Amino acid sequence: AQSVAQPEDQVNVAEGNPLTVKCTYSVSGNPYLFWYVQYPNRGLQFLLKYITGDNLVKGSYGFEAEFNKSQTSFHLKKPSALVSDSALYFCAVRAGKNTGFQKLVFGTGTRLLVSP
Amino acid sequence: EAGVAQSPRYKIIEKRQSVAFWCNPISGHATLYWYQQILGQGPKLLIQFQNNGVVDDSQLPKDRFSAERLKGVDSTLKIQPAKLEDSAVYLCASSPLGGLAVYEQYFGPGTRLTVT
Question: How far is C-alpha B97 from the chain's CA centre?
Fold first, then answer.
């Protein structure tokens, strides 16, 4: 079964420093990987996706993610963190082989706290 | 464009009562999803519609949960009767049918259900 793991419940970083939120995946076949962000009392917002192509994927709000097939990882990164980046981040993988079956399986989430 | 709309935003009911949630997806999006997000966990897919047909309802507790999307646009998710463990945020999401955008799901703000 497709799954993702987010090993850290919380990541703390100072504003201006680089940040990394970790995600590892387990899939059969080619992975379709996603990052979403959730602000308090709001729904999830799409950040970026990896379908195929370059291993470094750029997304919204200056975030990027690096796909590493040998390590089965898809870590979210940002060169310089902002206090406003503080939120809950979810990694997800597509489950289902057909394009009509876009079921996403989410990780447990990582809370990012950026201090001033 | 307008985002995914959900109502109500909050609902408190007693166990064994019934409750219904409404979702209006982004205009033109053929696929609609209902997720359940329990506190501290990632969202879990309950049911997926493509137009007005069910694509995946494998994780929907069918003895108490039901959902419909009669005209292929808005959707209703019902719980009858509710249990304490149904306390969660219910998220609706939608995505278009074709192209690479099919892999991006757009989420509504969610309905926070508390069962007492």
Answer: 18
Contact A43 B103 (CB under 8 A): no
Q: Please state the three-class secondary structure of chain B as a single string.
A: CCCCEEECCEEEECCCCCEEEEEECCCCCCEEEEEEECCCCCCEEEEEEECCEEEECCCCCCCCEEEECCCCCCEEEEECCCCHHHCEEEEEEEECCCCHHHHCCEECCCEEEEEC
Helix (H, G, I), strand (E, B) or coil at A61: helix
For chain A, what is the total number of helices (H) and then of strands (E)?
0, 12
Q: Which residue has the higher pLDDT, A101 or B49?
A: B49
Is residue A57 within 8 angstroms of chain B, CB to CB? Answer: no
Q: Which residue of A has its CA nearest to B110?
A: A43
Interface test with A, best of B32, B46, B107 (most A CBs within 10 A): B107
Is B42 within 8 Å of A107 when comparing Cβ atoms?
yes
Q: Does B25 touch chain A (CB under 8 A)?
A: no
Q: Which of B33, B103, B104 to mutate to test the interface with A (most CBs of A within 10 A)?
A: B103
Residue A19, pLDDT score: 97
Give, rounded to a whole angstrom, the gap between the first and last alpha carbons of chain B: 37
| A46/B contact by beta carbon, under 8 A | yes
Higher pLDDT, B24 or B1: B24
Higher pLDDT: A100 or B8? It is: B8
pLDDT in the model for residue B1: 64
Cα–Cα dist B107/A47, whole Å: 12
